[in-house]
Amino acid sequence: MFQSQRIIENLKNNIFRMDKMILLIVYALVTISTVFVYSATRQNGMVVKNILWIAIGTILMFIIASFDYKNIKLYIWHIYGVGVMLLLLVRFAGKKTLGAQRWIALGPFQLQPSEFVKVAIILVIAYWIVDKYKNGINNLKDIIGSILPAIPLILLILIQPDLGTTLIAISAFLFMIFLYDANMKPIWIIGIVVMLSVYPVYRFVLSDYQRDRVETFLHPEKDKKGSGWHVIQSKISVGAGGVLGKGVLQGSQSRLEFLPEAQTDFIFSVLSEELGFVGSTLVLLLYLGLIYEIIRISRIIQDDFGRLILYGMAGVIFMHVIVNVGMTIGLVPVTGKPLLFMSYGGSSFLASFIIIGIVESIKIHNNK
Hints:
mainly alpha; 3-stranded antiparallel β-sheet; 15 helices; FtsW/RodA; transmembrane; cell shape
């Protein structure tokens, strides 16, 4: 009896210490998600599944938040090993869809390990930097060394192929070391060299079919019924919303099935058509608020390990927004990356709630 009372009291204390603004934003986003998953599909079954993933994710979030994040250090290489095994399983026994082998079939459910491994990559890098680079990251050798343990995981994701998650993981790493006050001069130099080499590589290195892909991305109307179809329909959907939108459930692009993968990759297009510029801007402000709140927590804690994890999680959320929204308006190639807390999908929802669980754990347990 006393044990049960202690558990309940501990749970109450943890809930009291959680960041309420983060919870408010997250549940605003998943509520909007549920509405627009229905709008995109008009299937009650999809809505029920969406709510189920939200419920499971919520339970997972509270469980993770209740554990002290510092104990991650004790299991970091176990987490690493599980990540490697999952990605190898995908490689040799995964389900291949649309030319990519990214999923493991578990009965009616398809698990996408890369959604979870990107979180593991952040934890591994944070642990490695705190353990090996106590004097800071001061040069190119340190930058390369700080990401070294994560490279096998990143390469296993890349060969699926999953370029989107690979870029998100690398960008989150850069987010981490930039906010950690690393010497970024070598990165800026490399960035300038890459930018200057873009045209020569395009002109003299790429083959004809690779140049065609680049041109189709830049000018999707050149292949309206082929690889340019997705982007063209998405841009029509976004533009059709105007300032205030057509109204919830009134979007024509998804209802008439012109917009492919409307409930997953292009849910922001559905939202933009039905809520217009004002509604889509408000949703983006919710993401901005979520990222701001995570960074705010990082500024008030004393632990470098927790701070680095928060930087990485903020970077992951930021890059998902950039990649997904950029994809819907033709600024980024179509990579199939979900909009976290919005796009339909079990792996995406669960990984997103794991991220929030870890963030809340750092908020709760940092001063204990």
